[in-house]
Amino acid sequence: MLKKLIKTIATIWIVVMVIIIGSRGYYISVINKPLKNIDATELKMTIKSGDTLNGVINRLNSQGNLKNSLLIRLYMKLNKVSFSVKQGDVVIPADATLAQMFDTLKNFQGLPTNVVRVMIPEGKNLEEIGKILEEKGVISYQDFVDTCLKYELPPYIKNNSKRKYALEGYLFPDTYDFTKVESGKDGRAIIKIMLNNFERKIGEVGLSLDEVDEIDKIVTLASIIEKEVKVEEERTLVSSVFANRLKIGMPLQSDPTVQYALGVHKEKLSLDDYKIDSPYNTYVVAGIPVGPISNPGKASIEAALNPEDTKYLYFCSRNDGTHEFNESFEKHNAAVLKYQSN
Questions:
Q1: 3-state DSSP assignment of residue 261
Q2: Helix, strand, coil percent values for the chain (each to nearest 5)
Q3: Amino acid 37: pLDDT
Q4: Are residues 53 and 105 in contact, defined by beta-carbon separation less than 8 angstroms?
Q5: Domain with residues 42-107, CATH architecture
Q6: CB-neighbour burial class of residue 250 (10 A; exposed 0-12, middle 13-18, buried 19+)
Q7: pLDDT value at position 91?
Q8: Residue-wise over 186-216: b if at least 16 C-beta within 10 A, else e?
Q9: Which of 57, 55, 81 is CA-nearest to residue 68?
Q10: What does the CA dihedral 60, 65, 67, 69 come to, rounded to 10 degrees?
């Protein structure tokens, strides 16, 4: 009987210890990495007027960004975490510890009421940027586009009347703090900030602003690569296809150039779409199109400058964000039948 009692007590003790150790381990994992479901390297959130720290925690939890809000509140109680939060767009690293997350929120200085933080994603065209700026309350779409059309171009941007927008490709995608523009006023300051950023990035990749033709070529190719690629490691491979085609005088035949020529996005292009008479349509014009079709990021510019050394002439979408690359038309045709027949 005593033996059985001792065995039962030992079993209970082991179970309790496992629960305690497991709970402590889970608590530590939450403290070390409280954020979850973050697709990027950072979490961007807007702290609104009147928000409290508890309100921020509630919102992060409701959005599914916290591992365990109860343990986070326990941590706050045990460590007496309490402070006011300031209005504005705050960025929290996705791998931040709970202490680092609170430090970020506590030290965030906020933005002046007339300043708006805006993220311009890579690959957006000029009109899409205008819509983002309008949505953020920085400037109206029409005022932005009108300003772009009349903006005095810097020497490194070609003034080609065949282009839809001369500034297309040079409005560098990044996160900016823009001062709001009053209705009816132009946005030259916005454009200048984005061009200054472009100039810095061009220097970082080893190009000189004096190399006008080279910049024009690289930015145009990069703008197409940006629209074609969804997987980082494919940038230089797509670049190699374009480089190989240009060497032998083969049309680039890039669908995004057709989309840009059409002026509207279509999920599936028709045979007539591919025939559209436009200097942007790489199915009907030889070589590089008349100008960029989007505003590329640094990675695509570097890929255009440094294509992979391959013999690929074709790539076909697998419909999952990746592509199959081939040297021969026969193999490319087989890939098209495999992935694009439906």
A1: helix
A2: 50, 10, 45
A3: 73
A4: yes
A5: 2-Layer Sandwich (3.30)
A6: middle
A7: 85
A8: bbeebbebbbebbeebbeeeebeeeeeeebb
A9: 57
A10: 10
Instruction: Give residue 7's pLDDT.
Output: 60
**Alpha-carbon dihedral sign for residues 20, 25, 27, 28:** positive
Closest to 226 measured CA to CA, from 184, 259, 197: 259
Whether the CB-CB separation of 275 and 284 falls below 8 Å is answered with yes
Give the Cα separation of 81 and 239 in Å (integer).
51
Helices (H), strands (E): how many in the chain? 13, 6
Distance of alpha carbon 292 from alpha carbon 279, whole angstroms: 11
User: What pLDDT shows up at residue 19?
Assistant: 58
Give domain limits for the chain: 42-107, 115-204, 230-340
Task: Report which of 175, 193, 188, 71 is spatially closest to residue 132, judged by C-alpha positions.
Answer: 175
Q: Are 275 and 181 in contact (CB under 8 A)?
A: no
Q: Which residues pair with 286 in a beta bridge?
A: none
3-state secondary structure 284-306: CCCCCCCCCCCCCCHHHHHHHHC
Say whether pTM exceeds 0.85.
no
Read off the amino acid at residue 235: R
The SS3 call for residue 164 is: coil
pLDDT of residue 39: 67
Single-letter amino acid code for the residue at 319:
N
Which of the residues in the chain have pLDDT under 50?
18
Helix (H) or strand (E) holding 315: strand 314-317
β-pair partners for 315? 325
For the segment(s) 115-204, the CATH number from 3.40.50, 3.30.1490, 3.30.1560, 2.60.40 is 3.30.1490
How far apart, in Å, are the Cα atoms of 63 and each of 26, 97, 101, 294?
A: 21, 19, 16, 31
CA-CA-CA-CA dihedral for 88, 93, 94, 95, to nearest 10: -150
